[in-house]
Amino acid sequence: MRLIYLLMAGVVLLSFMLAFLSGPFAVCVSADDAVKCDVYGGAGVPRHLEIHANGSFYMLYDGREVRGVFRCVNCNQSSVQVPLDVRAVVVVRPPVAAEIIRVYQLSALAVYLLTVPLALNVLAVVKALQGRLYGLYKGLKYAVWSSFVAIAVAIALWPLNPASALLLGAYGAVMLMSAWQVNRRLRQWVDTLLTR
Amino acid sequence: MGRYSVDAVIRLLSLLLERPRKKTELWRLSRLNYNSFVKHLNLLVERGLVAERDGYYTLTDRGLREAKEILEWLKRTFQ
To answer: What are phi and psi of A81, to 5 degrees?
Structure first.
């Protein structure tokens, strides 16, 4: 497959994944009578949320404390529906909380790293379309770096969303093999050119 | 031939593929440090890919042919 199509497919895939995965994300721990969550996401997302078994909630929103009755269909400690457009609630029970929470926090933050391969892919496409010798070479290098980052992000995303991580990892591997092969062939060519 | 950078070689070939250039202009546009620039330019001259004519550095017939071949191959691979 031509690299430009692979890169463009990557731009579409990464944009879609970024839009899909970068919603608010909560990491929660079950306490005695409540589920306490730290929420990650963009502006306007509460940073802390506590949902109590009796249906009341407490949250920190833009630094302000909000208390009220939590209206949901299924309010209990282990199965929570959050009326805040929170993408996923991970309920982690002590005593393994500390370790697992760290993993999920990293995964939640790794989503934003998807902008790096996305930007590299766009740069590679732009450079390739310029049609200059050095531009094409730079495009190739951007493609290699993009695939490395995509694979790294896929590994970090695995605990959060295995299906997306698998898709991203597969894309990164295909891109890496293609771009690496072209890069190696180019190096051999230049080697021959300078030793002939 | 000592160690060389593919990046620097492609950069110089790309600039000279556009048109012949004076040494200072070529150095400025290449964005290489001066020692690296001189090393790679001399290497290309030694290998008969680049020549100096009337103060301008230009691709030789062989250099032009090879640079165009690489360009076309990269275009075919990419586009």
So the answer is: -110, 120
Domain count, chain A: 2
CB distance A186–B17 less than 8 Å? no
| Subunit contact A194:B15, Cβ cutoff 8 A | no
ipTM above 0.95, yes or no: no
Return the amino acid letter for B10: I
Domain of B29 in residue numbering reads as: 6-78
Q: Is there a cis peptide before residue A95, judged by omega within 30 degrees of 0?
A: yes
Strand order across the B21-22 sheet? B21-22, B56-59, B50-53
Q: How far is CA A110 from the centre of its chain?
A: 5
The pLDDT tens digits of the residues spanning A27-75 come to 777 766 777 777 776 666 667 777 776 666 676 666 666 655 444 434 4
- How many other CB atoms sit within 10 Å of the CB of residue A33? 10
User: Which residue in A56, A54, A80, A58 sits closest to A69, CA to CA?
Assistant: A56
Q: Check CB contact under 8 Å for A136 and B1.
A: no
pLDDT tens figures, B8-38: 999 999 999 999 999 999 999 999 999 999 9
Going by their DSSP bridges, the two strands B50-53 and B21-22 should be labelled as unpaired
Q: Which residue of B has its CA nearest to A196?
A: B47
User: Which residue range(s) make up the domain with A175?
Assistant: 3-21+113-195
Residue A78 lies in a domain: yes
Q: Cα Rg for chain A, rounded, in angstroms?
A: 22
> Hey, how many other C-beta atoms are within 10 angstroms of the C-beta on A31?
14
A140 touches chain B (CB under 8 A): yes
